[in-house]
Amino acid sequence: MIKSELVIKIAENNPHLYHRDVERIVNRVFDEITQAMHQGNRVELRGFGAFSAKERQARTGRNPRTGAAVDVTEKRVPFFKTGKELRQRLNTKG
Q1: Residues 32, 46: one domain?
Q2: Which of 15, 47, 92, 94 is the most buried (most CB within 10 A)?
Q3: Which residue pairs, CB below 8 angstroms and at least 24 apart, start in 54-57?
C-alpha cells in the first residue's frame, strides 16, 4: 500500500472528512514521525511498533561495478522494530 492508497482508504472509512483533510492529517503524522527521528527521539506506536534512528559508523566500502575502495561516511539510518501485537497478527492464520 502506498500513501495515496492509505489516504483513500481512510477517507472511505470516514465519509464525514474531506479527502484533502485526510491527506493533510496523514502527511502531518509522517512529518511528525520524521521530525522526531531527526531530533534523535524514538516514536512508539503501541501495538504497531517503534521508529528510531541508528548510527552507522564510517567505513570503507566497495564499488560493485569496479571493485574500487570507496569511503562511506558515518550516517544515521531509520530503524523500525515491530510491536508484539503486529507480530502476532502477521503470524496468525485466518
Answers
A1: no
A2: 47
A3: 54/79
pLDDT tens, residue by residue, 21-59:
999 999 999 999 999 999 999 999 999 999 999 999 999
Domain range holding 21?
A: 1-40
Is the distance from CB of 72 to CB of 58 less than 8 angstroms?
yes
Distances (CA, A) of 4 to 10, 12, 30, 36, 72: 10, 12, 13, 23, 34
Q: Do 60 and 84 fall into the same domain? A: yes
Q: What is the CATH number of the domain that holds 50?
A: 4.10.520.10
Distance CA 35, CA 44 (A): 14
